[in-house]
Design a protein that fits this description.
The protein has 160 residues and is of the alpha+beta class. The protein has three helices and seven strands, in the order H-E-E-E-H-H-E-E-E-E. The chain has one domain: 3-Layer(aba) Sandwich (Chemotaxis protein chec). The chain is 32% helix and 28% strand.
Length: 160
């Protein structure tokens, strides 16, 4: 994986989560390993353009009510499960939409698919694509993992 891609992925995700969901994002220690919880949820946004792939976010299911409430300006517990999933998909979409121009350049155009929630939430794994970026963020003392996959072969601009 590329350190520059990971740095951009971390920066975009942290800024988006802090501004949109009002979660304070902490950076884990360098040697910290992602520890998935039993109750996690993963959203994935596919994209096509100068290169194609997908970006996924895995986080604790119990963070969804606060995430949705913060985004919608409601009190905790006032959002439905559907609103929580919609808010999580929207966060995924915004992070992906902000990430791609930072990696490929502002002049590049991408089409982003509507994010989907995976049935097996704990791990996004794509055998047909190359993992080029992976970061862990800490939200509310809970790990959150973001992964960026592209179709093989990996484009030269992503290998820098």
């Amino acid at each position: 994986m590329n350190k520059q891609t990971n740095a951009i992925l971390y920066q975009v995700a942290a800024e988006t989560l802090e501004q949109l969901t009002f979660f304070f994002v902490e950076k884990p220690e360098d040697d910290e390993i992602f520890e998935p919880l039993d109750e996690m949820v993963t959203a994935v946004a596919g994209f096509n353009g100068p290169f194609s792939g997908c970006m996924g976010i895995s986080l604790a299911f119990n963070l969804l009510p606060e995430l949705a409430s913060n985004m919608l300006g409601t009190e905790d517990g006032e959002t439905s499960e559907q609103e929580q999933m919609d808010a999580f998909r929207e966060v995924t979409n915004i992070i992906c939409g902000n990430l791609l121009p930072k990696i490929a350049g502002l002049e590049k155009v991408f089409d982003i698919d509507a994010p989907v929630i995976l049935e097996k939430a704990n791990d996004l794994d794509s055998k047909q694509m190359a993992l080029i970026g992976e970061v862990i963020l800490i939200l509310d003392e809970t790990d959150c993992k973001l992964q960026l996959f592209v179709e093989s072969p990996v484009p030269n601009e992503l290998l820098k």
